[in-house]
Specification:
The chain is about 75% helix and about 0% strand. The protein has helices at about 1-20, 25-40, 50-55, 65-70, 75-95, 100-110, 115-120, 125-165, 165-175, 190-200, 205-215, 220-235, 240-250, 255-270, 270-285, 290-305, 305-320, 325-339. Among the domains are: about 1-140, no CATH class; about 255-339, Serine Threonine Protein Phosphatase 5, Tetratricopeptide repeat (Alpha Horseshoe).
């Protein structure tokens, strides 16, 4: 959610700032760049289609990159073009700086074409830019491109081994290939497969470590992230569990169970303002148990030295469930303190 929001807000600025005269490749490229610029865990990871395009040398010249969006020769070319636009902006930012990207945006807003903007701001011909950029991408992805076929073969073997629950063999093969394509975090990714295999062989620390790698590389399956949080709690690592659930807020903010858990962890850790935010999210999402939800929010408000607001929440909790003892006790305590 956060990555998508950041991407789309980037379009608002680039299209408004240029009167919509910016090339498609540049507005999409800046939006993709912005996703990972704010947080390395955001944004899409490099896909198999992109790796294949790099291997087959199918990236487009910068002056023709718009074609990949508006007149693609195949469905995969659109996905590859998003990647290429983002990496071009990454590359320009790294080699020429952010001010150069802004200058290019102004040039496009003034109606200049891609070739002229490249010459003006980068001081090189578009063909020379392509040569340097392609070399940059090939060097950056060399390990994944070179080993992709071996990785794919290893994953096919693991899929067959999974049918017979040969977990030791899965672990052996998985550990051999896991560094060849670390960016793959979509369905049937190796992180989750290895974590399951470790759990089945009673190696919970290894399973947790694998899922922590998954989260940090950009994995975004809400159920897997919650599973990791629960494992961390069981291991006595509640602070780490809270950090993992906080990441989930940026991926899928509509999970009441995750908000309730994170609010509880933060309240326990003395982060009253964070707990208030999480419990307010639970209240706003039509909770199954409204009395408990309002009671939790009251506890956080009270911890944040807001007793009057806490009492309001307790009254609401008791309206939903007049016999709810925890809310009754806290209300009596707050009323006694007031006297």
């Amino acid at each position: 959610w956060a990555s998508t929001l950041w991407h789309e807000m980037s379009h608002v600025f680039t299209l408004t700032g240029t009167g919509s005269r910016v090339p498609r490749w540049f507005t999409e490229g800046l939006a993709v760049h912005e996703e990972t610029a704010v947080n390395r865990e955001w944004g899409d990871r490099i896909s198999p289609m992109v790796l294949k395009a790099i291997k087959d040398k199918k990236l487009l010249p910068v002056t023709e990159l718009d074609r990949g969006f508006v007149h693609p020769t195949e469905a995969a070319q659109v996905i590859v073009s998003y990647f290429q636009g983002g990496r071009i902006c990454d590359y320009i930012n790294e080699k020429w700086g952010w001010d150069t990207l802004l200058a290019m945006l102004h040039d496009f807003g003034a109606g200049e074409e891609t070739a002229a903007v490249i010459r003006k701001e980068l001081k090189i011909e578009p063909e020379e830019f392509d040569k340097r950029f392609f070399a940059f991408v090939e060097a950056d992805t060399k390990k994944q491109v070179d080993h992709f076929e071996q990785y794919s073969g290893g994953m096919k073997l693991i899929s067959e081994l999974a049918k017979t629950k040969a977990y030791d063999a899965i672990i052996k093969e998985g550990e051999k290939i896991q560094d060849w394509y670390p960016d793959y975090v979509e369905d049937n990714n190796l992180y989750e497969i290895l974590a399951k295999a470790y759990l089945e062989t009673n190696n919970k620390p290894a399973a947790m470590a694998e899922l922590e790698r998954y989260v940090k590389i950009g994995g975004r399956n809400p159920e897997t992230i919650k599973k990791l949080a629960k494992m961390l709690v069981e291991a006595g690592r509640k602070k780490d569990a809270a950090d993992v659930l906080a990441r989930l807020n940026y991926i899928y903010p509509l999970d009441n169970e995750a908000h309730q858990l994170l609010g509880s962890f933060w309240l326990e850790q003395g982060n009253a303002s964070g707990a208030m935010r999480e419990f307010r999210a639970v209240v706003a999402h039509n909770p199954i148990d409204p009395a408990e939800a309002h009671y939790d929010l009251a506890r956080a408000l009270n911890s944040n030295h807001q007793p009057d607001q806490a009492k309001d929440e307790l009254f609401t909790a008791l309206e939903a469930a007049p016999g709810y003892r925890p809310a009754q006790r806290l209300l009596l305590e707050l009323t006694a303190d007031k006297k």
